[in-house]
Amino acid sequence: MTMLAYEVVPLEDFSKEFGSTTELSSVSIGGQVVNVSDEFFAEAYQLLLVEPPLNLAKQYGPNGELYSGWETRRHNPTYDWWVLLCNQRILQEDILHRCTIKLGTTGIITGFDIDTTHFSGNEAPEASVDAAHEFPNEETTWEGILPKVPLGPSRRHLYKIPATGQATYVRLRIYPDGGIARFRVYGHITPVFPANPVEPFDLAHIFTGGKVVATSNDHFGSSSNLLLPGRGKDMGDGWETKRSYTKDHQDWVTIKLGAPGYLSTAVIDTIHFKGNFPESCDIRGINSQDIAPDANSDDWKMILSPVKLGPHCMHFFRLSSPCEQYTHVKVSIHPDGGIKRIRIIGTMAAKYGADVAEITTRADGKHQTTPIIVEEGWEVIED
């Protein structure tokens, strides 16, 4: 029997161990519970909620005291299990405790946060995790990636594991029963690029490998939200900085693109930010081998001069230097405020420089706006 390797990570080391990863299980990128053996006291969908678990002590429903998390009934003779899909669209078929799932994205798993906050006396005593990648059927074998580990009451449990192969879904088991507040799977998304190498797409999108690598301020909302799919539901899933009272202040975020590219269009979305949107923004680009280039380096080149922003709307801007290759962009907002999403539209640079230059430059030398792939709810504004 193969022994599974894992490492217990102290809570204070979370940023060091998981700061460069993506929460593959998050509902914000399509993570979804697709099957569960039992959820008598608390429904399993709550495991994936972005917000921390609420304290619902002394609040009761038809089945008993309420909890923010997943809780099964008592006295289970075997174990309870739960299946998670890290994806947007699924086809589900239940066959003997299994689900058939069609995935739109995959990832490599490197760790977990199994959180029992507010579960004390009814927490699951132990848990394990399995994963699979191939299309499941009756013959599918789950691969164990985290062995049975002990859980304590009302605390977060961080586990780091060796990087797995590409995984499309995972199965969380608890022994023998009980509750877990949140379950977060960390790792690295496998980027998805257009089949046509000269087709424009969003190089900053989380599904194409885009990643926020530095920011000046995340006081009210995380800058990593800027790259999520869709337009979100409220200000809470955007990026918002604290108020500034210093003359000429600016906040900024550095985004590492999913691939080096030639950039044509930027989309700055301020939806839901009505009285706290930035007055203006600008964008700089750089071609760097560093994960997070120095934000103050002289090598950054202006590709969008300062432009005004408005409340609760999507802004489309044409970028300069479309024939130059960039690996990162730095978006600066003046003086502060909130943005919901940033899209950086362009084409992949690798091996296709001549083709890209040809389709992005007119005979008169002026930049041509190329067609862009839009998400639901986008409005394309033509000159």
UniProtKB/TrEMBL annotation:
InterPro entries reported for this sequence: Allantoicase, Allantoicase_dom, Galactose-bd-like_sf
Every Allantoicase domain range: 30-189, 209-348
GO molecular function: allantoicase activity
GO terms of biological process kind: allantoin catabolic process
Superkingdom of origin organism: Eukaryota
Similarity field: Belongs to the allantoicase family.
NCBIfam families to which the protein is assigned, alphabetical: allantoicase
PANTHER family assigned: ALLANTOICASE, INACTIVE ALLANTOICASE-RELATED
The protein, known as: Allantoicase
